[in-house]
Amino acid sequence: MNPNESFELLSSGLSIGMSFFFGIAMFIYMALALMTIAQKTKTNNVWLAWIPIVNVFYLFVVGGKSAWYALLMIIPIVNIIMMIWIWMKIAERRNKPNYWGVFMLIPLFNIVVPGYLAWSD
Predict the structure, then answer these.
(1) From CA 90, how far away is CA 86, in angstroms rounded?
(2) Span 37-63, pLDDT tens digits
(3) pLDDT digits (tens, 9 = 90+) for 73-91
(4) C-alpha torsion sign, points 105, 83, 89, 87
(5) Which burial class, exposed, middle or buried, applies to 58 when counting CB atoms under 10 A from its CB (0-12, 13-18, 19+)?
(6) CA separation for the pair 45, 57 (Å, rounded)
(7) Number of H helices, E strands in the chain
(8) What is the 3-state secondary structure (H, E, C) of 90-110?
(9) Contacts (Cβ under 8 Å, ≥6 apart) of 94
């Protein structure tokens, strides 16, 4: 193995490791935010925020809608509309302006919005 190949192997391994770490960190952040929002909106079973896939259905329950709406998340384009709509409903339940749901379209803001809705007064 020449030095070039070993460098490529190392850099790809680091890239995969960092992506994995970032993914786990984002999952923990979003689960904590959803759990906190659920507690503040007095939604039952806050532990559902920690179960992958189920937490998408729980997002709709926290927004005050039927979990069946989450099935629309499978349809391309409709999923974008549904995500904005449910975050608007969650913002309303937290007594915040509903336009915060539209911010979920903007990169980096879609990280800030759940935290804002969870931990602001």
Answers:
(1) 6
(2) 999 999 999 999 999 999 999 999 999
(3) 999 999 999 999 999 999 9
(4) negative
(5) buried
(6) 12
(7) 4, 0
(8) HHHHCCCCHHHHHHHHCCCHH
(9) 37, 40, 41, 117
